[in-house]
Design brief:
The chain has 149 residues and is mainly α. The protein has helices spanning 13-30, 40-54, 63-73, 80-89, 94-100, 104-107, 110-123, 129-143. Helix 1 (13-30) crosses helix 2. The longest helix has 18 residues, at 13-30. It is elongated, with a radius of gyration of 20 Å.
Length: 149
């Protein structure tokens, strides 16, 4: 087997979600047409993928937010795959960046990673960011000997 067309570009989960949503809308429009029927396995695959992606970070992202984040990450000299993983996974902790970025310890210091995390958080805000801050405060209270009624 010979590969004729190599992968031209990487697509993030947000882009996949947008394509699947457009396809779902198109499918709903032509559903009433008796001449066209989707195979059941295609419907199942589309349904499962939409269900999964709607529960991930990409469901709250926008194209503008992704473009902003890509612009902010240019200075870090990350590979395309690393940028894609950051967009898809939207890490919140330095340990997550260590899992995404190859040779992270050699390439970046902890200060760089903290700045990168702040840029990710500001470019791709999520509703659960507030919950994480509250959990951090609760953990700090437990360590300080907070209320233990």
């Amino acid at each position: 087997m010979e590969v004729l067309n190599r992968q031209e570009a990487l697509v993030c989960n947000y882009e996949v979600l947008m394509v699947l949503q457009e396809e779902d809308q198109r499918h709903k429009r032509i559903k009433s047409t008796p001449y066209f029927k989707y195979p059941e396995n295609v419907n199942t695959l589309k349904f499962e993928a939409l269900h999964y992606l709607n529960d991930t970070a990409c469901a709250t992202q926008s194209a503008e937010q992704i473009a902003t984040l890509k612009g902010r990450l240019v200075d870090y000299d990350l590979t395309k795959a690393e940028v894609l993983q950051i967009i898809n996974l939207r890490p919140k902790k330095a340990v997550e960046l260590h899992l995404i970025i190859e040779e992270c310890e050699e390439r970046f210091g902890m200060d760089d990673l903290e700045v990168m995390l702040e840029e990710i958080k500001s470019a791709l805000p999520r509703a659960d960011d507030d919950e994480d801050e509250n959990e951090g405060e609760d953990e700090a209270n437990d360590e300080d000997g907070g209320d233990m009624d």
